[in-house]
Specification:
Order of helices and strands: EEHEHEHEHEHEEEHHHHHHHEEEH
Strand content: 15-25%
Radius of gyration: 20 Å
Mean pLDDT: 94
Number of helices: 13
Distance between the termini: 46 Å
Low-confidence stretches: none
Bound molecules: adenosine-5'-diphosphate, zinc ion
Number of strands: 12
Largest sheet: 7 strands, mixed
Amino acid sequence: MQKVKIELGVNSYDIYVGSGLLPLAGLRLKELGFIGRAVIITDTNVKKHYAGIMEDGLTSAGYDVEILEIPPGEQNKTLKTAARLYDELSRINTERITPVLALGGGVTGDLAGFVAATYMRGVPYIQAPTTLLAMTDSSIGGKTAVDLGRLKNIIGAFYQPKLVVADINTLKTLPAAELANGMAEVIKHAAIMDKEFFVYLESNMDKVLALDADVMEYVIARNVRIKAGVVSKDEKETGLREILNYGHTVGHAVEVVSNFKLKHGQAVAIGMAAEAKISRRLGMLSAKDADRLGKLIIRAGLPARIPDFDVKKIMQAMTHDKKVRHGRLNFALLKSLGEAFITNDVDAAFVEEVISGGE
Ligand code: ADP
Ligand code: ZN
């Protein structure tokens, strides 16, 4: 097991990564001083596999457990589902000190986190991520939100959990496509911050995909440290944290144009490959490094080419994105593998030419 401390002053918390941690979540809660009741929010799929395990651990640690179920899928990450959860929390007389535990992927984490942030102006929030994406990305950084129609994460709050417990055993039931989805952000973190980790991924991708326990624990913990380092330095996303947007300027646009048929990780993979090309065309990144990145993306089971979408629509989506300031396109780009920089001055016509297939 590995423990990573997220340094955020009074909002600091620990992320535990390892095998078999879910049944021990109750002990961790006790260490933090919580007593009485605990509420688990989980989706139907995850409940089937893991709610019982978590509940048993909490019960043996002396908690009185309530389980609230939500339907799976991003389409349910809405104010309507949140409102239902508020009703249920009030029905079971949740108190201000009652911890709310999000057991599930990023959707459950975002939604339960938003509910925890807003119910009674904030109740304690614990995350037990069960997807690779949630373990390596959404559970770190304190972003919680719901969607408003097509507008993703438009209503939300920064709200830090008290604890994150990532039990890698839960990944065994995760569909392969969801595993690949999470790998996109892992590759991103290596590409922007950590050359050595990038090389490690090149050597160990087969073990990652086979869910080798030691390799997974190492990959997730290292990845948590990379993201945590960035987030601790820039909690509210004002400067440095923008390098985490690598792959996301083009990626988000492609995701929108696909009508969200592409998963986030697939869109980010496409975005990373496209933005590596932009970096290369600007004379920053070597052709060799761009090629290595493309190969790693493909080995993880992710796409590295923009699908046959209307480039004008992609450009339109990009310029409507919140990453645009003063009409210039804002990008996180690569200097080399392991080193990124932020620029808010990339010419839109140039980007259009590059993503249209121009060499
Ligand atoms: P993400 O973390 O990618 O944002 P979601 O919360 O939407 O994802 O989870 C993706 C899908 O995988 C959902 O249908 C969810 O119910 C399911 N899921 C999450 N964790 C697991 C798991 N450990 N085993 C099986 N299915 C899971
Ligand atoms: Zn992302």
